[in-house]
Amino acid sequence: MNSWYHSWRAAIRIARRDAWRSKGRSFLVLAMIALPILGVSAADLTLRSAELSTEQSLERSLGAADARLNDPGMGGVPLMQTPDANSSTPVGDFENKPYPEGKTDVSKALPTGAKSLTDSLGSGKLHTTHGLLNTEIRELKASDPLAKGIVVVDHGRLPQKADEVAATTHFLETSGLKVGSKLTARGLDREYKIVGAYELPDALDTDQVNALPGALLAPLDKALEKAGLPVTEASTTHLVSVPGGFTWNMVKEANAKGVTVNSRAVALDPPAKSDVPIYQQEGWGDYEESTAAKAAALAAVGTVVGLAMLEICLLAGPAFAVGARRSRRQLGLVGANGGDRRHIRAIVLAGGLVIGVAAALVGTVLGLLLTFALQPLLEDYMGQRFGSFDVRPLELLGIGLLAVLTGLMAAIVPAITSSRQSVLASLTGRRGVRKSSRVLPVIGLIAVGLGAAIALYGSVMTDQYIVVAGGSAIAELGVVALTPALVGLFGRAGRILPLSPRLALRDAVRNRGRTAPAVAAVLAAVAGTVAVATYAASDDAQGRAQYEARLPHGAVSVMLDEAGGRDVPAVRATVQKMLPIDLRADVDRISVGKANCSMYGGGEGCGRYEVVVPRANQCPLWMTDPAHPDEDPSAKFDKAERRKLADDWRCKELPGGGSYVDGGVLVGDAKLLKVLAINDAAAEKALAAGQIVSFDKRNVDTKGKIGIRLITDTKKADEAAQKGKDAPGEIKAFTAHQVAGEPNSYGVAMILPPAAAKSAGMSTVPFGAYYSTDKMPSSEQRQRLDGELDKTGSDINLHVEEGYTSENSIILLALTVFAGLITIGAAGIATGLAQADAEADLKTLAAVGAPPRVRRTLSGFQCGVVAAMGVVLGSAAGVLPAIGLRLTEKREQMKWYREAMDQGYGSLNSVPHVPIIVPWETLAALLVAVPVGAALLAALVTRSRGALSRREAT
């Protein structure tokens, strides 16, 4: 024991001294190991710090209150909820009757003796220095002790008067206002003074203003309703303080009155599952991630970590070999003075230990400092404040041990190789010749075959991506094990090469111990790059094939469904002014009820319309039988009949999706046809004659008319729909012109002339416009337009049809650069080792008259040879996992498609197109540009003349 301690102590001292002497090499290896440790430790600190405890989370949502009571909008019927109040459902069976809706008086559910504080939240458009901004409006007396912790004052103070408000710091930054500014809301003739800035710790990027209860929302709603504008739609919750806390039994009592409760006591001490009524219902439960899913996730993380450690070891191993080769005389002296092989191994391994410990310390400390320094930026990026700066020593220690383990693993092969050299060879500088292992290639070949078989099985027989990924990883490790043998095969090409590349190739083949790790490192990096690049290129091709244009190329559409189209004319004019518009086609939509009703919002006094499809034209798969309204219409057909009906014209949907209006009905004129690139003189003539133009023949009856039902009572319409009956309402009939053929109308089912709508007594409101352009709008024009539209504060749907745009090009470029850097780094390390080994040969070449440039060209070709071998092998190995994953995706998508066809939904989907595309541009950059670049870089940084020294006897 004592001998072991002293020998390792001496080995560590020697390794520390050597590391200090070779600062450049030591820094290189330390950086390779420390950078991943820095990233992982910083990520661990960030995630742990952002992870809130239950107490911290409750403080941000409840403040100092015991509970928050909320109206779920179920009309006060008894309900059941989960302990966290995130889910609730009414008590009873509502399958065959209307689901409960309506408001509940939350105050009736307050316990006796409870203190309460209202917290109301709505939204409205506030005037800013830039225009209008849709903002959350909150009415909470935040200075009340019950609300402590919900908002955090940044500067200024909280409102104390009815004409004062506070605003979030994000709102002030976005609006251009500041503390002391005057604030007004659209539609309200009243000013408020901003007296303070605050932040919501859980939502830093929220635009919100806070006023005293009753100071802003009620007056604003009254003014908006008078002006015919949408109201704030405020909702109110109650913060409650109860002596002894709000228990689970009290929560269930509130549930019986139709109120949900988020309770502090329940969150800190949840009830047993058997005491939660909602968990006893079918389809409900406290779901957790399955053990198999957790195991798969751990396996995936372990594989990624293992492959990352392998890559670092392959890169750092040759660097340790360089150090061992340059210290061979010192190691020989250790052997000459009585040291045995284990002492030699200990010295080289101690080098890995020293560098690993240093990397662990440097990486962890830098991770701590970086996270602490970037905490405000990280919090802003995540949109929430840290709960605390949570440092977990055991986790950081485990991360640091990975660095130590990586350093030791990287030094294992150099340690074994150095210990096998004889003392005489080490002292004289002679290099022994050792045959390559015959076992390693066999193991590698078996691993390649096994991995390929597993990946093939995963892609053909299962839907599990993890199987394909695991098999691909095993196959790649097998190729790494085969690398020494494959390097030997490359040597056969040396006979046809000129002097310098021939010397470089033969030197690489003869010294596989240093060449193979560098080639394997390049192989691993390139294989991963090629795999991801192939998958990304294939996915890109699939996206391009499946892309469905919403408009003709270069066309523009703008839609706005707010306030009865009040802001639409201004928006239309803004778009026409800011973009190179050729033709503008204004469109309106049908309005039923109040003019300010939104298209889908409903509400009091608001109705809707629907296109009346003749029963003979309805798809049998979707047509409800009034005698059996609860039955699935497609259930009466077998699979073969469903597949046949999926191709029936009655079950086909219109292509495109440019229209965002009910039934695809737009009120417009012939200009819309031109913008949609539909050249049909008969259709233009029909619009001029006041006829409705149809692109979907299912809507036209046998008399050549289209009916549109105006529904004023939406509640009765919903009840009729549940019974499989037609909704009550007046039907307006229009003479229709069905467009011949199947032109792409981009989701527009029909165009109704304004004159026809007016003559039928139908109300319409401005909805938007379609535009054709002289040329594709530039990015600068788009940005200026977006800035102008943002000033309106409206939710505007703007679309410029640019065709399919790939999002993978930057990914492919980044992958190519990453693989190039890894390749150049690994090849450079191998070149440094080769130069250390070949110094005697270079002196001999100089002595026999070789020109000085030979040293430079030889160095360049040595680097290029390693890079070329790694890139070629990595490119071949990287295609396998991508093909396997794509085949798995194809099987999965085809399975979904067949199931959809069997269920009668095949008409909604096209046959899956899952191509496999090889990214030739990326491969060309890797196979040609990267090796050539590595060779040129190595040649440039190599001195033409070596240091003068006497030749050693060999």
Describe the structure in your own words:
It is a single chain. 50% of the residues lie in helices and 13% in strands. α15 (465-490) packs across α16 (499-510) and α15 packs across α17 (512-546). The model is unreliable at 947-954 (pLDDT under 50). The chain contains 28 helices and 22 strands. The longest helix has 51 residues, at 853-903. Strands 1, 4, 5, 6, 7, 8, 9, 10, 11 and 12 form a 10-stranded mixed sheet that branches. A 6-stranded mixed sheet has the order 15-18-19-17-20-16. It has a 4-stranded antiparallel sheet with strand order 14-21-13-22. The protein is globular. With 954 residues, it is an alpha+beta fold. The two termini are 41 Å apart.
Provide a short characterization of the protein structure:
The chain is an alpha+beta fold and 954 residues long. It is built from 28 helices and 22 strands. 50% of the residues lie in helices and 13% in strands.
Looking at this protein, list some descriptive labels.
954 residues, alpha+beta, 10-stranded mixed β-sheet, 6-stranded mixed β-sheet, 13% strand, disordered C terminus
Main pleated-sheet profile: 10 strands, mixed
Mean pLDDT: 81
Overall strand count: 22
What structural category do the secondary elements indicate? alpha+beta
Q: What portion of residues is helical?
A: 40-55%
Terminal residue distance: 41 Å
